[in-house]
Please model this.
Amino acid sequence: MLTSTRPLVPFGQIEALFFDFGGTLAGMDFAWMARELLARNVPCESTSLARAEIAVRRLVSAKLAEENPPAAIFPFFLSSILTQVLDAPAETINELVSKLTPVLLPEGKGVKLWSSVDQETRHALHEFSQLGLRMAVVSNADGTVEANIRGLGLRDFFEVVVDSAVIGCEKPDPRIFQFALQALGVEPSRAIYIGDLYSVDVLGARAAGMHPVLLDPHGEWGAVDCFTTTSLSELVTMFKSKT
Model:
């Protein structure tokens, strides 16, 4: 069941859902990552990589919340994942990160990497649409989110897609959320933002006056001051029980 701490979300008053993209709607292609590791004589199961990615989100969130966060978070993200799954010294991890980053993000673009959408997510988006909820995407990205969403067959679900690289500001700056709200014509008090990183998604959406929901599949975040959900399907159930 969906769990929460304060504040409560008035589900019956919500008109629109705004989603993060990577880590919320789409996952990394961990099968591809595992193949690239194996090509470098580093065997690793894709399921282990996927589980580790969820486990290190708190580390990534904390890194982004630092006074001077790195300009590019992916090397830290990848290093944290590999540290979780490989019994290898830091030097080996760093070497793998250096070699894999340009492969997984060619020209700094993540279209191929963030390319996994499960059927549960697709079904949940359909259910939200059937409930009459308007939907949009707000992502810290590299200018490719629109193409990514189209390639994954999800574009028809969303009225608005906002990519930080396109509009020139990124989460947690409330302006990126305000831009999306204005584009959709929805008051922030009637909107939910769903993401997977507390410091970026929850704090940013809250600063814009929206209701944040943190995606937490395995209870990694513990007690946080916002709603958490294990899945989008669980969120569908919450809407159905409140409307």
Summary: Confidence is low (pLDDT under 50) at residues 1-5.
